Sequence to fold (200 residues):
Amino acid sequence: MTAPQAPTDDELLRRLAAGDEDAFTALFRRWQGPIFRFGLRMSGAPAVAEDVTQEVFMALITGAGRYDPGRGSLPSYLFGIARNQVLRRIEKERPYVPMLEGEEEPLGALGAADVLEELERSERVLRVREAVLSLPPHYREVVVLSDLQLLSYQETAAALGCAVGTVRSRLHRARALLLLKLADPEAPSAGAEARAGGRP
Fold:
């Protein structure tokens, strides 16, 4: 006996548009985590990520009928709303907000070699986070969507409202900037490099 299949995003959206609250709950459970992580990776601030997530799902409740599956997948639609919200917050506040560290495993529970390895890993993760956050928003968003959220080029393009070729070009430049930043922490900031290289 096979387990019942979970409804697709499109089925849930149709039910939501008809007023089904359970459909909204199912969509929220399915997409809240990825949207929150996108907001956090783009802004570096949990409070911004929470606000962005709330705005995305408020937009979904009030505008479920506006989603057009012919223009892209539901993830592309949701990440597109999230992107617009994050960019508004970045413009309004500041371009770089330090990422707050989450609760880590107590180092006292680890052996000496494990402690050193954990510290090195944490330092690498922090350097990568800082490097991603230092990218200009138009490069940061393609890295977050394609490399961290694992959206396809087509889904990323739909979320950003641009061509797939633009996504590929920006991703190539963003990865080059990240490699430069991670290889030499004293290298010019990614923002300065991007300004020197121009925006595609």
